[in-house]
Every structure is written in C-alpha cells, then in structure tokens.
Design a protein that fits this description.
2,3-Dihydroxybiphenyl 1,2-Dioxygenase, domain 1, 8-stranded mixed sheet, 5 helices, globular
Length: 311
C-alpha cells in the first residue's frame, strides 16, 4: 500500500473561455486565483489555478481554457463530479448565491449522511458543495464570501466507470480503503487524510457510453505526496505493479508523474513542494503572467495573443 499518498493535490479541467472561468471561480465561488500561467504543452493557452490563500494541496482547482472548445460529452471513464467542502448550514447561502449568479443544475441531496448541493459550472462541469463537520482548513475570504460559509477545499472526486473492480483495487493500493457504499456508488477514503481531501467515490454505470473530453471535462486528478523522494517510491511501486508511469516532470510549482487508470481516468501524483510562492510573493499570487522557463522567450507573443483576464 502506498502510504506516501496523503489525499488529493489538485484537479485539472478544460474550459472554453478564460474570463468566464475566472469569474466563476473567483466572483461566484469566492476562491482565490493563485496562478496565471500557460499550458506547458500548448503555451498559447492559459493554465489558471484557483485555491485558498496559498494554494495548499487539497484546495487547488486548475483549468486549461481552450478558446471556443467544444463541450465534452459525459459518460463512463471520467470524473463526473468534483466536490468542495463547506461548513454545516452553508448550503442555503450557496443555493441562493449560485442561483443569483446564473448557475444551473442546482439540486439538493444527501449521500453517505452528508448534505450536498449539486450544480453545473459554466461549461456544464459537474460540481457539488458538501457540508462537512470538523474541517479545520482556513478558507479564502478575499472575494466577499464569509468565513462561516466559505469553501474549505476539496471534499472528494466522483468517477463514473463502466466497471469498478480494477480501479477499486488501484485505490486500495493508493492508501484508500472502502468505507461505505450506496446503490451504484462506492466510497474510498484515506484515513485521517493530512490535507482534508481524502475521498474518492466510484459510480458504476455499466451501460453508459464512453465519455468524450471537451470543455467542462476533468482532464486529470492529482494526488499529493510530501516530496520528490516519496514520489519516486510511488513511481517505482506503480511500475512494479504494471502501470505505465511517465518520468518525473517539473511543473514549476510541483513535480508530477502521470498514469492512466484501468477505468480510463488520468491520475497524477504531485509533490507538495516547492509551492506556488516560488515565483510570486504570497500577497500577489495570481496577478502577473508567469511562464515556464522554456516558454519565457514567447512572452512578447503571448502577452499579445492571450486575452487579458478581467479581475
């Protein structure tokens, strides 16, 4: 069992419009934009990061906004819902706020004894807010959402799979244990997850068609490890188990490895180091356009090409 894995690190999704995406996460959900950079593999596309004050692992939602991207098709083989933790009693506030901001798909429910509010993002992204007790994580309140209702970070991700068997075994290997089930949903969790974001749900949909990625789709889910030494231990163990794992890739704010799960979802294992303040003071995170070293020579072009973000 890979006890080096401590919970979710970040979730990365696709969007079609950078400004619409930025407004939704900062002005509607009240998160902080902590980094404005570019896609390493497509530097003419932004990579935007939203989180708590400092980008603590387990709070970080990131996006590649490809201009005018076609909307994804929901189905099996993807993360269907990304859930955020909020304090008990916060859902009425959020239901009213989301409705006022034009969010669609609002629906109240209860799952595993937890009250939740589902809603859609600007591109049809599947989200939920879950009332969570004893979550001591400090929220970001700089965008006008009070501390008593603000998002604390991730609660969970929920994968939609045609078959859950092999992925369930992988999650057990990755330090998760099955803690509950309800109908077609099985819940896996890391006991006492260090960063408060230790839950992965699997919804089994054997007759569902295969998902097609596009705007509103989750691109990958990243799990946190403390440092590069532990990451290398995880990589070695995964490869010995038969997974095809990438070499370590320097993503400036963390080091990453990637592999495809049996159910089709792309997993990443990311280090908590060096963090998002390596090139910006904490007070000014997300303000300036930051470029990877290999793309710095493109700055004059990118500053002309990329649509300015309206804060």
């Amino acid at each position: 069992m890979l006890k080096q894995i401590k919970g979710l690190h970040h979730v990365t999704s696709l969007a079609r419009d950078a400004n619409e995406n930025n407004a939704f996460f900062t002005r509607t959900l009240g998160l902080r934009r902590i980094k404005k950079t570019v896609n390493f593999d497509a530097p003419d596309v932004y990579h935007l990061y939203y989180a708590d004050e400092t980008g603590t692992p387990g709070t970080v939602m990131t996006y590649f906004p490809f201009p005018n991207a076609a909307r994804g098709r929901p189905g099996a083989g993807e993360v269907g819902t990304t859930a955020f933790a909020v304090p008990p009693g916060a859902l009425p506030f959020w239901e009213e706020r989301l409705a006022a901001h034009g969010a669609t798909g609002l629906a109240r429910a209860e799952l595993f004894g937890e009250k939740r509010l589902s809603f859609a993002g600007p591109d049809g992204d599947g989200f939920a807010l879950v009332e969570t007790y004893d979550d001591a994580r400090a929220p970001w309140t700089g965008n006008g959402v009070g501390e008593d209702v603000a998002i604390r970070g991730f609660h969970s991700v929920s994968m939609r799979l045609a078959d859950d068997g092999a992925t369930a075994e992988l999650l057990r290997f990755m330090n998760h244990e099955e803690v509950d089930s309800a109908g077609a949903v099985r819940r896996f969790a890391i006991a006492g997850a260090d960063n408060g974001a230790g839950i992965v749900d699997i919804e089994t949909l054997p007759s569902a068609g295969h998902a097609r990625q596009g705007a509103g789709s989750v691109h990958h889910v990243a799990f946190a490890v403390e440092d590069r030494g532990r990451q290398l231990e995880v990589r070695k163990a995964l490869m010995e188990t038969g997974y095809q794992v990438t070499p370590v890739i320097d993503r400036d704010y963390f080091f990453a490895i990637y592999f495809r799960t049996p159910g089709g979802v792309l997993f990443e294992v990311s280090t908590n180091e060096p963090g998002f303040d390596r090139d910006e003071d904490t007070a000014h995170l997300g303000e300036a356009l930051k470029l990877p070293r290999q793309h710095e020579h493109l700055r004059p072009f990118l500053e002309q090409h990329l649509e300015p973000i309206r804060d």
